[in-house]
Amino acid sequence: MALRINDTIPNLTVTTDQGEFTLHDWIGDSWAILFSHPKDFTPVCTTEFGAVAQLADEWEKRGTKVMGISVDSVEEHKKWKGDIEMVAKAKAGFPIIADEDLEVSKAFDMLPAEAYLPDGRTPNDSATVRAVFIVGPDKQLKLSMVYPMNVGRNFAEVLRALDGLQTANGQGVATPANWNVGDDVIIPTSVSDEAAKAKFGDFTTVLPYLRTAKLPS
After folding, report:
1. Is 166 annotated as catalytic?
2. Which position among 33, 45, 129, 159 bears the catalytic label?
């Protein structure tokens, strides 16, 4: 069954290179990002895990925990982190799930129920395990992105999307295309002009259904 926006994520118990966690307990009251990869010791994935490591301070500023997923063993994860840290020149302090039985990959609808890992497998056998899931403190899926194997993820966009989600959910607004922190936001159509004036002060009516404003300071 597909995992859709606003669905509660499965509360799986996962084994990582940092021990065993239950996903809901690990998330706690934080935001969380799960990012998955088809195999350790692969070139694009190594650069991506490195990018996540370099952004450790940014995740912390946003009250967000990050956890990797790869369908290899704990021991391979520990060895791979040496390569990741060498490339990134940053500590990879986040846990990586050892999804050897594909339980997480299947539960998050990245692989079909009948999928298995053949002997001598290659990344192509788990190619769709190339996803990003942003989860709210309510344990619900807020956003997902899926990438092919030959295109590295843009983690600046993951940060931007996280900022948008936290702003939209926290302020009761929406964000327009290409929005960044500090830009005007969109006033929901459910908010009357009178209520918008009271909350935002001045606002701009671009179209009857498109009103923009600065967030109150």
Report:
1. no
2. 45
Contact call for residues 56 and 145 (beta carbons, < 8 A): no
What pLDDT, in 10s, does the model give residues 19-49?
999 999 999 999 999 999 988 999 999 999 9
147/140 Cα distance (integer angstroms): 21
Predicted local confidence at residue 4, as pLDDT: 93
- Reduce the DSSP state of residue 151 to 3 states and report it: coil
Residues 6+ apart with CB under 8 A from 1: 109
Look up residue 32 and give its two tokens. Answer: 């969380």
Strands in 19-22's sheet, in edge-to-edge order, are 19-22, 13-16, 96-98, 64-70, 31-37, 131-135, 141-146
- pTM given for the model: 0.92
What are the Cα distances from residue 97, in Å, to 20, 47, 94, 183? 9, 18, 10, 36
